Amino acid sequence: MASGDRRRLAVLGSTGSIGTSTLDVVERLGGRDRFEIAAVTGNGNIPLLAEQARQVGAELAVTADEHRYGELKEALAGSGIDVAAGRSGLIEAAEREADWVMAAIVGNAGLAPTLAAARRGADIALANKECLVSAGSLFLEAVRKGGGRLLPVDSEHNAIFQVLENDQRHAVERIVLTASGGPFRTKSLEEMRHVTADIARAHPNWSMGLKISIDSASMFNKALEMIEARHLFGLRPDQIEVIVHPQSVIHSMVGYTDGSVLAQLGCPDMRTAIGYALSYPKRCDLPVERLDFAKLARLDFEPPDEVRFPALRLARWAMEAGGVQGAVLNGSKETALEAFIKGRIGFLAMADIVEKVMDQLADLPAATTMDDVFAADEKARQTAAGLIK
Ligand code: NAD
Ligand code: MG
């Protein structure tokens, strides 16, 4: 139980980009004086995971990699910190009593642990967009039944969450997701055909994990975010717009029926969104860079190019089709992305593969249970892998 008014937190994916920013925010907002850390989890980076666990005084540290259990155990010997590994370890971390859980494991691997935390009734700070892309309404239902709150951390969704007044939801006409356009915003299709993962991962504005950085370059990240927004805010596909805004200063906008548009602005630093989710409904003090409008001078906008970035068109298709098409899009995208990172396929082939898989699996029945979602994800991965061979 929480002692005094200290809050108990768990950070799933603590060793990643969002995870380390989360621990930084926790430290700046009072560290051990205000927070107890029930669990931290990572994957391959055992030294960092062990260091984090000791630093924050975590009760449990988990590596997703079963083969690294011994290494983690050894690194934490004498600390009194519990150690676990593998999928069951991740579930154990999610099920440890904590009132706020940061869901920052990358990819579909984050779905089961986040779901476990949601079912338990924890407030979920959701960075892992794949939960909503793959499991959509089933995930929302689990959160609702659990009774916790869903606090969006993805910067666009966090921005919308900040400017969306609950009693005005009926008057929302559209939301406008901003996109930086990534490193290939001005590149031709021919130039994009030959880029490597090292080139694709260099994001102009945000510092993020490898996979989301490449997804930003292909705009698959924005595609996932469209589906994520649809579920989070209960909108029709035609109410979701994307605009390219290279400065990444406006994090997203809500348009109302009276013509008003409300936006949230800030420097591109995920700690603002994380801090908002941790302090909600209050605001906290964070030492992030402040916007200097005179220095900024201008904000640019351009429509997205769905020929060079077909991911956006595929997201609309998935939203309109409904059912398990979100899981199919995400599962095939993750498989294609892995193949691109390993140099087995080209950059443009990722969207080609996803489109073919979505086409081949267009008749999969809608999911009624989470097992159906996992089965659709698995089928999409196998189909994509078959196309890559
Ligand atoms: P990252 O690659 O930096 O970190 C991922 C974390 O997940 C690490 O702790 C890693 O150890 C863990 N992990 C990796 N594979 C795993 C597996 N198979 N099982 C369990 N754990 C595993 O990623 P990130 O950039 O921090 O992104 C995390 C999530 O947040 C993603 O879903 C991403 O889309 C989302 N997100 C990130 C940002 C950002 O700025 N980085 C912004 C918005 C949303
Ligand atoms: Mg985002």
Descriptive keywords:
magnesium, Rossmann fold, 1-deoxy-D-xylulose-5-phosphate reductoisomerase activity, 389 residues, binds nicotinamide-adenine-dinucleotide, single chain, binds magnesium ion, 17 helices, Rna Polymerase Sigma Factor, Chain: A, 46% helix, alpha/beta, manganese, seven-stranded parallel beta sheet, EC 1.1.1.267
Q: Count of helical segments? A: 17
Alpha-beta classification? alpha/beta
Could you state the order of secondary-structure elements as H and E?
A: EHEHEHEHEHEHEHEHHHHEEEHHHHHH
CATH class of the largest domain: Mainly Alpha
| Overall pLDDT level | 97
Describe the protein's topology:
Layout: E1 7-12, H1 17-28, E2 35-42, H2 46-56, E3 60-63, H3 69-75, E4 82-85, H4 86-95, E5 100-103, H5 111-119, E6 123-126, H6 130-146, E7 150-152, H7 155-163, E8 172-179, H8 189-193, H9 197-200, H10 210-218, H11 220-233, E9 240-244, E10 250-256, E11 261-265, H12 270-279, H13 293-296, H14 311-321, H15 325-341, H16 349-360, H17 370-388
Parallel strand pairs: 1-2, 1-5, 2-3, 3-4, 5-6, 6-7, 8-9
Antiparallel strand pairs: 8-10, 10-11
Helix pairs in contact: 1-12, 4-5, 5-6, 6-11, 6-15, 11-14, 15-16, 15-17, 16-17
This protein binds nicotinamide-adenine-dinucleotide and magnesium ion.
